[in-house]
Design brief:
Helix content: 25-40%
Distance between the termini: 57 Å
CATH architecture of the largest domain: Roll
CATH topology of the largest domain: Nuclear Transport Factor 2, Chain: A
Radius of gyration: 26 Å
Number of domains: 2
Order of helices and strands: HHHEEHHEEHEEHEEHE
Shape: elongated
Number of helices: 8
Oligomer: single chain
Number of strands: 9
Structural class: alpha+beta
Length: about 200
């Protein structure tokens, strides 16, 4: 008899729980899978990173920057020292041009509207979500920790983003009547938007 009553009590609890969640949707529960889907599906996360390549007259600071050194090592650009102008200083200054190999490499990466210009925007990498590593909830708000990495889109991206570095970020979520959403600029000040989270990323161990 006691066992029967215990089973009846458990059954009643299940019924009450089911009735209580009758109006729930999958987005009412912030699981790691849902958080991953919302992060990876965000336009901010899906946006590609670009490298701005300047040819012609550039400063020595630009010419010896890590990015330009990679381009030189690949044989894609070369430079000759020239006299600086009033708005490009201090000396030495460099006249930079694409090599024949560089022209071949960058040909399909430069937008047709930029043809003939000396300043190009080159798409290089996109983000890939590696894992959601933790969720901390408090009422209608939550902080989600996740790791991500860059995936090269082309040969230039592979050269500039060599290796397989992972980064860690924390982004804020808020629960609305239709489920959980990533915070936008109007969210809680104590949590980061996805754009802020990506800008403030740190190398993951």
């Amino acid at each position: 008899m006691l066992a029967y009553l215990q089973r009846l009590h458990s059954f009643g609890a299940v019924i009450l729980l089911s009735l209580g969640c009758a109006g729930c949707s999958p987005q009412d529960f912030l699981t790691r899978r849902l958080a991953a889907d919302l992060i990876a599906g965000s336009e901010t996360f899906k946006s590609t990173d670009h490298f701005w390549l300047r040819t012609g007259l550039i400063s020595n600071k630009d010419y010896v920057s890590p990015e330009y050194l990679v381009l030189q090592q690949k044989g894609w650009i070369n430079g000759t020292t020239v006299r600086c102008t009033a708005n490009v200083t201090p000396p030495p200054c460099w006249e930079v041009a694409l090599t024949p190999i560089g022209v071949e490499t960058f040909r399909d990466l430069i937008h047709s509207s930029d043809s003939g210009k000396q300043y190009f925007s080159i798409p290089t990498v996109r983000r890939e979500l590696v894992a959601v590593t933790g969720i901390s909830k408090g009422g209608n708000f939550a902080d989600v920790n996740f790791t991500w990495r860059w995936i090269p889109l082309n040969e230039v991206g592979a050269a500039l983003y060599a290796g397989d570095a992972h980064y860690k970020s924390t982004v804020g979520f808020r629960h609305y009547d239709d489920g959980w959403r990533l915070l936008d600029g109007n969210g809680a000040k104590s949590s980061q938007t996805l754009d802020e989270a990506l800008k403030n990323s740190e190398p993951a161990p």
